[in-house]
Design a protein that fits this description.
With about 230 residues, this protein is an alpha/beta fold. It has two domains: about 5-120, Response regulator (Rossmann fold, 3-Layer(aba) Sandwich); about 130-225, Winged helix-like DNA-binding domain superfamily/Winged helix DNA-binding domain (Arc Repressor Mutant, subunit A). The protein has helices at about 15-25, 35-45, 60-70, 85-90, 105-120, 155-165, 175-185, 195-205, and strands spanning about 5-10, 30-35, 50-55, 75-80, 100, 130-135, 135-140, 145, 150, 170-175, 215-220, 220-225. The strands form three sheets. A five-stranded parallel beta sheet has the order 2-1-3-4-5, sandwiched between helices. Strands 6-7-8-9 form a four-stranded antiparallel beta sheet, covered by helices on one side. The chain starts with a strand and ends in a 5-residue tail after the last strand.
């Protein structure tokens, strides 16, 4: 079986080389770049499954580069950054599947990448069935969500989170349970990362932004998907 292809983009040569070497030792096929132009050329050539993007690059930003990559492919994106501001995280999660702040451990990076790659394989059951709730249809085979006749554009992680909630309507999920079920590893950090993704999904599937009819907040606990199936 061919090794999974990864692209590491960071303008700091010490960090870039360290991550490159570690991931290569884990059995991945890795290429790396220190600027956006080189990264894009390698991206088109390598066609990686996952890209690790530093936010600050000499000729662009990791966000813009990731946005460009996501327009052309369904590549997984992990943002790697010094930024810890909540607004930056919310912006990053519109195109990224995970967000890692510096300083970080190589073991953590490896665990997060493995969890993201595993998610794609494990979320689709042998004979998956589409889920229909009124005008909302979630297709796990095509990994596609439609609302009426419009396709809802979700990141890979947003799709997995929505599918997890919708596959068991009525169940109340604690944030820690969603982290374990969707992220598929022991998440180290603020559990409010779940809230950020829920907010992104709501903005995309709720017709009335002032009334959450599908994903409900259960105060002091977590979230619940509750809508009558068609």
């Amino acid at each position: 079986m061919a090794p999974v292809k990864l692209l590491v983009v960071d303008d700091d040569p010490a960090i870039r080389n360290l991550v490159h070497r570690y991931l290569s030792q884990q059995g991945y096929q890795v290429e790396s770049a220190g600027d956006g132009e080189t990264a894009w050329a390698l991206f088109e050539q390598l066609k990686p499954k996952l890209v690790i993007l530093d936010w600050n690059l000499p000729d662009t930003t990791g966000y813009r580069l990731g946005e460009q990559m996501r327009k052309h492919t369904d590549v997984f994106v992990v943002m790697l950054t010094n930024r810890t501001d909540e607004a930056d995280k919310i912006q990053a999660f519109t195109i990224a599947d995970d967000y890692v702040t510096k300083p970080f451990s190589l073991v953590e990076i490896g665990a997060r990448i493995a969890a993201i790659l595993k998610r794609e394989r494990s979320l689709t059951p042998p004979e998956p069935q589409s889920l229909a709730f009124g005008q909302l249809v979630i297709d796990p085979v095509r990994r596609e969500v439609t609302l009426g006749d419009q396709i809802v554009v979700l990141t890979a992680l947003e799709f997995d989170l929505l599918y997890c909630l919708a596959s068991k309507p009525g169940r109340v999920w604690r944030r820690a349970e969603l982290l374990q079920a969707v992220w598929d590893y022991e998440y180290v950090g603020d559990q409010r990362v779940v809230d950020v993704h829920i907010g992104q999904i709501r903005r995309k599937i709720e017709t009335d932004p002032n009334h959450n009819s599908m994903i409900k907040t259960v105060r002091g606990v977590g979230y619940q998907f509750e809508v009558t199936a068609s």
